[in-house]
Amino acid sequence: MDITVYENILDGMKEYNNALSQNYGNTVVATAPSNPTYPLTVFDEIRNVANVNYNGDFDRLASMGYRADVYAKTKGNVTKQTIARKIAQEIDNYLSNYVGLNRVSYNVSELENDGSIYHIIITYEGTLHENRRKFI
To answer: CB neighbours (10 Å) of residue 3?
Structure first.
């Protein structure tokens, strides 16, 4: 049950996002600010449970779960849906291919702010080998 993994993934996601040539001004945060600007990605750890069957001196495993919420508004001629989907694709690329997490769900909601905000919710899971500090 390594609690530093979340911060490492979040920091890496921020760097990855900032290096993108077209992120539409997306900001990656741990908690939504009270007065947000869009697009915005909120990333949170939703599960971090030690696997007691494997926790010993040589193998320490933990079941990890994460949630990424992507929010977007229309900017000029680019629709909120296009912005949110492109950002979600990049976030998924980072979490799946660089971190090694498995995507569990991908859901869309347009109920935010009377339909002016497009919201994509993506959840991930993975088994962390704590000794190696790597998802297996």
So the answer is: 9
